[in-house]
Amino acid sequence: MEHITLLLGIVIVTALVFDFTNGFHDTANAMATTISTGALKPKTAVAMSAVLNLVGAFLSVEVAKTISGGIVNEDGLKTEVIFAALVGAILWNLLTWLVGLPSSSSHALFGGLIGAAVMSMGWSSINGGTVVTKILIPAVAAPLVAGIAATLATRLTYRIGRNTDQKATAKGYRAGQIASAGLVSLAHGTNDAQKTMGIITLALITGGALNPGANPPMWVIVSAGVAIALGTYLGGWRIIRTMGKGLTDLAPQQGFAAQTSAATAILASSHIGFSLSTTQVCSGAVMGAGLGRKGGVVRWSTATRMFVAWGLTLPAAGLVGAGAEFLTKQGPWGIAATAALLVGGSAVIWVLSRRNAIDHNNVTDDEIRAAAPAEEPAGVVTTAIAAVTPPPAGTLAASPVTDGSVKAGVSAPTTTTTGAMADPARPATV
Length: 430
Description:
Strand order of the largest sheet: 1-2
Mean pLDDT: 75
Radius of gyration: 22 Å
Low-confidence stretches: 366-426
Number of helices: 15
Shape: globular
Number of strands: 2
Structural class: mainly alpha
Order of helices and strands: HHHHHHHHHEHHHHHHE
């Protein structure tokens, strides 16, 4: 192993802590729809996702090379800058986890790194071309591409199965959901685990332990894969619950289409070295699948809150990273103070999270209650579309009112069930 100084060791441990938070922050990307439709039990879902995240970490290093040698100039970059960047990313990840907000761990890391580098060396330290082509453009394009692909895939799926029994085909699509969720987890490992590999490699280069342009050593790949897998297994239940609180209503067919589209986009981006946000890709695919079903709608009030969070992540993490770098520049006492703020802030957030603990036993409770309009209003756009759009084929049989007397805005009573007892033909709220 390369010669590791004390400060470099602290940075490596901090990077693995970020990787851990990345894991539980992004579990919902692969497993929220699978859990909400009852295709897998919560603990089984996160265990499968953790294993495949670990496997995915070994499939490529293209994203790691983008981060270790592309976003910021290595010349003059100090190890303290990377430490400050990780502090900004971790605190933003934990804060958004506390409020159950599915923001981008990737953009939190990029924002922290850019903010800390600018505070240390000025704007000239940032490779603007790389930031635009491999971060900003994918941030806009990837969710759109995944959303359009999911919309088309959903329509094709329903067209192919239009003459088949809805309940019978739904069981098959539940099995397809499990496979596609596994593919998303594998893709997540190839993209997100590499971000931490890139950061550790960059730290080793700045600390003189590796030559510029070097690939991540094997021990870096293994440790990053294990850290994100452990974080994934922890569950990230708060964000899974948020992803299941009314973004759209998905049947198993739509879940399969959404997850397959998202995995394809992530794997393709990882292959060419685009470091995109898996959160944004998966959310775009879910919304696309919601619009792809006849009668399906997206709750734009919920989607808008997610869009705002996405826009805030990069600058907010950048500001925290810049503030942390301002402290580390003061010398050893500044580095110690920054570490103390990280530990203290993390502890406070953890204590606050215990006031309303979410785990695998109650992660779907709010999804059930979200079905009540009084608790999760659909919004003006959704109500208007639902009033003029006929329901998908096969749903009238589940309604006690079939004589056409249902008025716009008034839904017939239904029975809410979850897990394996749920009606396979009924969309699940995600």
